[in-house]
Amino acid sequence: MKTGKPAESVLKRSILKQVHHAGNRNSAAVGADCAFFAAPEGQILAWRVQEAAVAGQADMDDAAYVIQKCANNLAAAGAAPISALIGLMLPENYGEDSLKELMKRMASSCENAGIEIAGGDTNISAAVTMPVLTVTMLGTVRPEEKREPAIAKAGQELVLSKWIGLEGTAVLARTRRTELLARYPAYLVDTAAGFDEYLSVQKEAGIALKNGAAAMHDLSQGGVFGALWELAEGSGLGLKADLKKIPIRQETVEVCEVCGVNPYEMRSAGSLLMTAEDGESLAEALRQAGIPAAVIGKLTENRDRIIVNGEETRFLDRPKGADVIAEAMQHFE
Questions:
Q1: Is 217 in the same domain as 255?
Q2: Segment (H or E) for 67
Q3: CATH number at residue 47
Q4: I need a surface site. Which of 102, 272, 284, 300 has the fewest CB within 10 A?
């Protein structure tokens, strides 16, 4: 495609046609340069921005994950996601078929999350070598329901929903299927590849708000270890977590063993870390709603971040900046 704005026919055919509008909120359209939002009475606006480079077909899933990650970030803050703005910067050699597929993936992800694409911007530039995606998502929240690590208190218990490593397991199971099938049966690999059905934390965040959750933090890059560190750092507290109580699927264990990835540091969208005075009561409320949950530790007055594994005790390391999934992908290439 030529440098500059895509042709209007391309915008209509490969971008706008993929966007489904559900209601009387904002609608993306040719020539509509702004989207307008009004918070319901008694609520405030919240927003989150995420970026991703879409290097190839395998990264199409990452592009769709960006939508879910934004929605998870807002849900963990106590907000209800409502609309997304999508920005695309494309290289000149990017084909219209790829653009259409990319928009389909993102539109489907938005639809599954109950979010409308309110608008965005698409440009083609010789300055980029791969598509760059920017998603800005808007939500609303009542001030008294806003959640952030700073409101956590010492003595509160740590509750984790579902299982760690869901996102990373799904990505590796799809992209490294051949290597995994050489060691494991197809049903295990297929089950692992389907873990992206669990990536939303919107349901558990809503239940947590009604059942005593103080602070919430969704797991993402850096995994459960990264989330524990960030929660403690944001609250100015320490913590003590039991490694054996952190829930993990056997499929994740097997995939990580082949791919040489630490599951506790792997992308883990789909799990929500919460604090509560009565962690078991919160976990039980989640389980009653069909969401697995476990109490894995407690916040402490001092700033020590401790992981217990049987008789072994060690300090939690500061999260690494590198993406262990990306590193695993390079290892196989």
A1: yes
A2: helix 60-76
A3: 3.30.1330.10
A4: 284
Structure tokens at 140: 């609303």
Residue 301 within a domain: yes
pTM of structure: 0.85
pLDDT exceeds 50 at position 288: yes
- Nearest residue to 173 (alpha-carbon basis) of 191, 200, 152, 197: 191
Q: Tell me, what's the pLDDT at 30?
A: 38
Report the DSSP beta bridge partners of residue 275: 158
pLDDT tens track for 155-184: 999 999 999 999 999 999 998 999 999 999
Query: How many CB atoms are located within 10 Å of the residue 65 CB?
Result: 25
pLDDT score at 319: 80
123 and 228 part of one domain: no
Residue whose C-alpha is closest to residue 240's, from 317, 295, 299: 299
User: Is residue 113 one of the residues assigned to a domain?
Assistant: yes
3-class DSSP assignment, residue 324: helix
Q: How far apart are CA 54 and CA 305, in angstroms?
A: 35
Contact partners, residue 177, CB within 8 Å, separation at least 6:
189, 193
Tell me, rounded to whole angstroms, the distance of Cα 114 from its chain centroid: 15
Give the torsion through C-alpha atoms of 332, 175, 109, 91, to 10 deg: 60
- 228 and 308 in a single domain? The answer is yes
Q: 125: domain range?
A: 8-144
* Average pLDDT taken over every residue of the chain: 86
137 and 176 in a common domain: no
- Does residue 313 lie within any of the structural domains? yes
Residue 243 DSSP class: G
Number of H helices, E strands in the chain: 11, 11
| DSSP-derived secondary structure letter, 233 | H
Task: Choose one of 118, 144, 170: the last residue of a domain.
Answer: 144
Say if CB 135 and CB 67 are below 8 A apart: yes
